[in-house]
Amino acid sequence: MYLLNKSCYAAFERGRATYIRDGYENVGCSFDNVKSFFEALWDDEVFRHEWIAQTNVYVANNYIYKYRPTLDRIDPEHGYEKGNIRMLPQWINVSKGYSKRVI
Q1: Cα(47)–Cα(96) distance, rounded to whole angstroms?
Q2: I want to staple 69 with a disulfide (CB 3.0 to 4.6 A). Which of 26, 54, 65, 103 is the partner?
Q3: Taking 90 as the threshold, does the pLDDT of residue 31 lie above it?
Q4: Dihedral of the CA atoms 93, 54, 19, 96 (nearest 10)?
């Protein structure tokens, strides 16, 4: 739960209009606050199961960062909103973002 809350906080911040960083221009967040963001994801049984399973992989691999669960926007043209968020291990999420920049 700690990792998901931390990830929701970071994503919520990236969704603010004042957040400026490559890859996050005009990325919105449809949640009113971090708590509602967290609760929407945690209440989704499929998402929660995937998050917990990946957290277990992360822990079993001595907290190697590439195995950490992350929040991914399925369609990068849309923001952090219900239906556009999934869990991906960090290394896949980063690879996905990198491949889009290279193309």
Answers
A1: 19
A2: 54
A3: yes
A4: 0
